[in-house]
Amino acid sequence: MTRIEEARSRAAGAKRITVGAAGAGFLVALLLARAGHPGTSSSSSSTTRSTSQQLQSQSESDNGLELGTPSVAPSSGSSVVPTHVS
Questions:
Q1: Are the CB atoms for 22 and 14 separated by under 8 Å?
Q2: Contact, 34 vs 40, CB < 8 A?
Q3: Contact 38, 44 (CB under 8 A)
Q4: Which of 9, 66, 69, 82 is 20 to 30 A from 75 in CA distance terms?
């Protein structure tokens, strides 16, 4: 084998290793994302009950306090900026 053929062989091996590692990493990321997704959890019914109980206890502790709707009006210190320049 010549030096060029040996280098090509090493490069091809490195490419195979890189592609294999990338595929394995993608598979691991896919499995972790699937396991971490709240819709696929096997204990979703107990989680739903726990969340609804927390919301109920939170609404009972509010004592009728309502915060209202937030305003999107500009602040009083803002200046008007022209939108059209002639």
A1: no
A2: yes
A3: yes
A4: 66
